[in-house]
Amino acid sequence: MTHAGSWYPGTENALLKEMNNLFTDDKFGPGEEPHTQNLEKRTIIGGLCPHAGIRFSGYCAAHTYLNLFKERIPDTIVILGNIHNRYNDIAIFEKGEWETPLGNLEVDDELVQVILNKSEIIQLDNSAFTGDYEAEHNIEIQLPFIKYCMKESNLKIVPIKLGYKTYHNYKLCEEVASDLSESINSYNKDVVIVASSDMQHEEVLNLKKLEKFKSRDKDVINAFEELNAEKLMNIASNLTVCGPQTITTLLLTCKILNATSGKLLKYYTSVDKGGFGYCVGYFSGVISL
How far is CA 172 from CA 80, 203, 274, in A? Predict the structure, then answer.
């Protein structure tokens, strides 16, 4: 829980209160608490979530998790994390538990082994998530939302870090997506995929700059809705989007799994929340069959 108490509340009661506020807010958030219809099958198989401090981006993230859980509570969520450091490889966390103030989340070591058996490029490397890399926040920020939405279920997670060599490498993202989709198809459980990424980062001091900023983010969102992974990577890699490789791999994986549509749920910027200055774009979206 490296960022508990700073990027999000560090105690159970405070975090529960904050989560309720994020979900029930009807201006930036979805305006309702997470719930499930307990359907036999799901149509929503993937989602994109921002990962800033939750008082900024959490309202946006709540939209994605509300939708991922509303059809049914998944058995496993694969979290595609990006990098804010120089880790180069593609790493998966083997087994164990990740702490949150709402309780621990267990890693699905069975699915991890399926992935490792099928992939030559995804490697077992717990050190990519600990030690020098423990300060990386983009996977950790997803965990309180998952824990809040899963209620008393036995949902598990599979953390994957897409390192620096995937950043501008579409072919490598295709390889990862092929391995992940094949693994998920062979795994007889309900698995959804989350890509962790914020949109652009830039100083924005007036409305004209904000409009330009939003138009560039909209180009990324349009590619997401089109499920056009190559177009998205080409656009996002030339902007300050922090996870073009996670979003691209999400799109590619879901398309192999027969996805037919991407949907924008919510978009706003930190300027919309707090006034002009350093601006970050937040986008939540889902991918459906």
Answer: 14, 32, 38
